[in-house]
Design brief:
It is built from 6 helices and 14 strands. The radius of gyration is 19 Å and the shape is globular. The longest helix is centred in the N-terminal third of the chain and has 24 residues, at 6-29. 32% of the residues lie in helices and 26% in strands. A hairpin with a 2-residue loop joins β3 and β4 (96-105). The protein has 2 domains: 6-206 and 275-299, Creatine Amidinohydrolase (Alpha-Beta Complex); 208-274, Orthogonal Bundle (Arc Repressor Mutant, subunit A), CATH 1.10.10.10. The strands form 4 sheets. The chain has a 5-stranded antiparallel beta sheet. A 3-stranded antiparallel beta sheet has the order 1-3-4. A 3-stranded antiparallel beta sheet has the order 2-11-10. It is of the alpha+beta class. The protein binds manganese (II) ion (2 copies). One manganese (II) ion is lined by residues 88, 99, 101, 192, 287.
């Protein structure tokens, strides 16, 4: 069987339960014209109230933005009217990560596209089992999306998760691929189809903006304030992504900006670029985390 003993599987299950409850509460919480900051803070507070920790900042990605936007500190932006909003959230319990997403649809024209993402996810969950190649799951997702007249985003993938790891080494494509990579029993995977319009190019590009960061070189900082900030990040988030919002009052506010900039320029931190569909077409997403078994899987989220 797999690499995890029953105690660890129980932590993944608890992580998934906290995340499922949070997602369902967020579905009814999110509204047009709401500050994005309020959405992020609500999701992260719900996760903590339920006894989990955010595995990464709540992502709120609007219309052609596919992923990786979270509110920076004091973000004044709001959910536009008629928006398509991907809310992507993660929990860890003792480092064991689960990851889920839904798309809030405030434009009836895109309802079918959101349902297509959910249906593609359902088909991927029915397809995944021990020893299947990741490319076959990609083929099932691609067919499910194209059969309904839409297009998958070809350069975004699902991924195995691990302890303090969002991407634990294996990718699950959203398009057909010839690959020798196989799904393993006892492993935990996040599956996440992204869907766009048929006339889109169906790939995402990096934007210059970065709102999510990860510590990669804890010893690179030189000034006392930057070292203190790096220590806090290491102790609290380890190898997991975080937002500058979670660093309030770690160092005196007059020194914060300079210290954070030092961590970036010394490459102590890496930043995740915001991903945008290259032809600026709207994107829908659905995501669950599953525990794979010999003949199928259990949805944890
Ligand atoms: Mn996710
Ligand atoms: Mn994911």
């Amino acid at each position: 069987m797999g690499q995890y003993d029953e105690d660890i599987i129980e932590k993944f299950r608890l992580s998934g339960r906290i995340l499922r409850e949070t997602r369902e509460e967020m579905r009814s919480f999110i509204r047009e014209n709401m500050p994005i900051l309020q959405v992020c803070e609500k999701a992260e507070a719900l996760i903590r109230e339920k006894g989990g920790k955010p595995a990464f900042p709540c992502n709120v990605s609007i219309n052609e933005v596919a992923a990786h936007y979270t509110s920076p500190p004091n973000d004044a932006s709001t959910i536009p009217e008629k928006a398509l909003v991907k809310v992507d959230i993660g929990v860890h319990v003792d480092g064991y990560v689960t990851d889920t997403a839904f798309t809030a649809c405030f434009n009836p024209d895109y309802k079918n596209m959101v349902e297509t993402a959910e249906n593609a996810l359902k088909i991927a969950i029915e397809t995944i089992r021990a020893e299947i190649s990741t490319g076959k799951i990609g083929a099932a997702v691609e067919n499910a999306i194209k059969n309904r007249g839409f297009k998958p985003i070809s350069n975004l993938t699902g991924h195995s998760v691990g302890r303090y790891l969002i991407h634990a080494g294996t990718s699950i494509p959203n398009v057909s691929q010839i690959t020798i990579t196989k799904i393993k029993a006892g492993e935990v995977y996040a599956i996440e189809p992204f869907v766009t319009l048929p006339d889109a190019i169906g790939i995402v590009e990096d934007e210059p903006q970065k709102t999510i960061f990860r510590l990669v070189k804890p010893k690179a900082a030189k000034s006392a304030a930057a070292k203190q900030l790096a220590k806090f990040i290491e102790n609290n988030f380890r190898t997991l992504p975080f937002t500058e919002r979670w660093l309030k009052d770690v160092v005196p506010s007059a020194q914060h900006h300079e210290a954070f900039r030092e961590l970036l320029t010394t490459r102590a931190l890496m930043g995740y670029p915001v991903f945008v569909e290259a032809t600026k077409k709207p994107v829908a997403q659905a995501e669950h985390t599953v525990l794979v078994e010999e003949t199928g899987c259990t949805v944890l989220t």
